[in-house]
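Hey, sorry to bother you again with one of my protein questions. I've been staring at a protein lately and its backbone has me curious. I owe you a coffee for this, so here goes:
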Amino acid sequence: MYKTKIIFFLSFCVMLCGGVFAQDEERYRIDTTENFTEPAGNVHILRLKKSYALGDGITLRSANGSFNISQSLQTLYAVNSAYKNISNLSSTFSISRARLSFVANLFDKKFAAVMRFNLPANYQSTTSGNRSFNTVLQEAYFEYRPSRKHTFNIGLRADYIDSRETRVEGESLGFIERSGVSGAFDAIFDYGIRYKGNYKLGGKHILKPYFSFTTGEGRASLQKNFGGFKYGIRLDYLPFDNFSNGGEFYMDDLAREQKPKLVIGVVYSYNDGASSALGTNGGRYLYGDSLQNITLPKYSKFGVDYLFKYKGFYSMGSLFATQATVPTNIKGEYKLNGQFSTYSTSQTQEQTQNIVNSRLNLGTGFNLQSGYVFRSDWAVALRYTSLNSNTISANFADYNKFYTLVATKYLADHNLKIQFEISYDELKDALKTSTQNGNYYSQIQFTVQL
C-alpha cells in the first residue's frame, strides 16, 4: 500500500508535466527596429520592433532614450504531505509572481529609472500601526552609469550583498524557488545607495566590486528607519572572462558555454541596528534603554559563493554565517501597540541577550546545486541545502535539510517554460515523530514573460 501511494503520487505529477513540446526558439534575437522618419528637429515618437519575441515587452523610443513596459506571470500548483506514508495529501494553487516592470533609459543609457510591482504580494507584517507595511512595490530606483566600469544607484531594489541566488530574477531560477539558505539569510530588497564596478585585471581576469549603504529595514524602511544603517560589500572574481549572454545572472546554462566560465564571490554585511529577524520586516522588534531611547542589536553576515558553467552543465553553491552583538543597556522593549514594557529588575543581562538573540536568524547555511541542459531544451537539476541554527536563535530551521529534483522544459528560454519539482524537507531530529520526519511535496509552475 505504501509503495502504491508513492507511485500514484509521482505518476500524477508527471502526467501534469508531460505532453508539452515546442520547436526550438532562437534564444537571442537581434534587436531589429523600424525607424520612422520625422521632419528635421522633431523627436522620433516611436520605434517598433519588426518581430516581437517573448520577454521584449513594449518599448517606446525617442532621440534621447527609451521606455519599456514588461510583465511576467508565474502560476503554481503544489501537492504535499507531512506524513511518512504520503497520506492526507493537501494541494495549493497560487500566483507565485505577477510582475509589472517599467524601465526608462536616457541619454545613451547613462541614466535609468526602474519601477517594479509584484501584484499578488499583499503581505502585512505582524506589527501594527506605523510598523506595518505592504510589499506590492518591489523596486523603485534611479541609476547613473558614468562609464562601463562604474554604476551608481539610489532607491529601493534587490541588494548586491545577499547570496548569489538573489542575483537571479525569480523568473530565471533553475528551480521553482530559491533555496533554504536564501530564505533564512537573504533580506533581498532594501532602500539605499549602491555602487557596482567592472575592472579588467589583465587577460581574461575580471573583478566586480559591489558596495551597499542601506537602511537594513527592508521595504518597511519606506515608512521609517527604526534602527541604524546596513553596510555591505561583495567582491566577485571571474578568472575566465564574462559569461555569455548574461549567463552570470541565471542558473541553467542555456548559452551552452563553449569554454569554462566561473565566478567566485565573497560577501559581508553589517547592520548596526537590526529590528527584525534578518532585515526584511523593519520595526518588528524594538528595544529601549532606561530612558526609553531605542537601542538595537548589531547583526552581521558573511558568505562565499560561486557559479560555474560549461557546455550545458552548471553548478552553484554558497556558504553563509550570521552572528549578533546585543547592547548591554537594554532595559525593556516596545510592544506592538507602541507601549514600552520594562523588563523585571531580576532579569539578568544574559537573559536579556537570550531574548534578543531568540528573535534573530543566527547560524549557518550551506547550499549546493547542479544541473544540465539537453539540446532538446529539457533541463534537470538537483539541490541539497542544510541549515544549522545557533542554540539561541529565531525559529528558522525546524526543517534543516532540503532535497530537490527539478525538470524544466524551456519553450522560449526563461520567457516561456514549465518546471516540475519533487522535494523533501527534513525535520531536525528533535522534532521527528514515528509518523512524521519531514514534508514531501511536488509542484508544477508555468512561467511566461511578455
In short: The longest helix spans residues 2-17. Residues 72-97+126-449 form a domain with the Porin fold (CATH 2.40.160.10). The radius of gyration is 24 Å. The CA atoms of residues 74 and 392 lie 37 Å apart.
